[in-house]
Design a protein that fits this description.
There is one protein chain. By secondary structure, the chain is α+β, with helices and mostly antiparallel strands. It has one domain. It contains three helices and four strands. The strands form two sheets. Strands 1-4 form a two-stranded antiparallel ribbon. A two-stranded antiparallel sheet has the order 2-3. A hairpin with a 6-residue loop joins β2 and β3. α1 runs antiparallel to α3. The longest helix has 22 residues.
Length: about 120
């Protein structure tokens, strides 16, 4: 997925967040704000949009789900970008989903950089 698709996906989310923020402000403050949520979102993403054309080895995943290590929860995101050099594992064929066993568990792990 091209970088511009990442920017588009994130801009949609940031516009929604700006809209919620503006709605939570007192009415007098909202009247003084000359930009709407769409303009604020576009302004917020301008530097990313400018950089979207730069070639780099990055994967754009949309939509994306990040699971917190050692926990059963996480966050759903419109998109994420991951440098190819940060990928620690690849697979080609399909996999089978598994569920963590019920009950108490503990795990220990470490991230060890490889390569450059």
């Amino acid at each position: 997925m091209p970088a511009v698709a990442f920017v588009d996906a994130m801009e949609t989310g940031i516009v929604a967040e700006w809209s919620q923020y503006l709605q939570a402000q007192p009415r007098t403050d909202r009247k003084n704000e000359t930009r709407d949520a769409a303009q604020l979102g576009s302004d917020s993403m301008a530097s990313l949009r400018d950089a979207a054309g730069v070639a780099e080895d990055v994967l754009t995943l949309a939509p994306a789900r990040i699971a917190w290590s050692g926990r059963s929860d996480g966050v759903d995101l419109p998109a994420i970008r991951v440098p190819v050099s940060a990928v620690a594992a690849w697979w080609v064929c399909g996999g089978k989903e598994f569920k963590a066993p019920a009950g108490f568990g503990i795990g220990v792990g470490a991230f060890i950089p490889i390569g450059d």
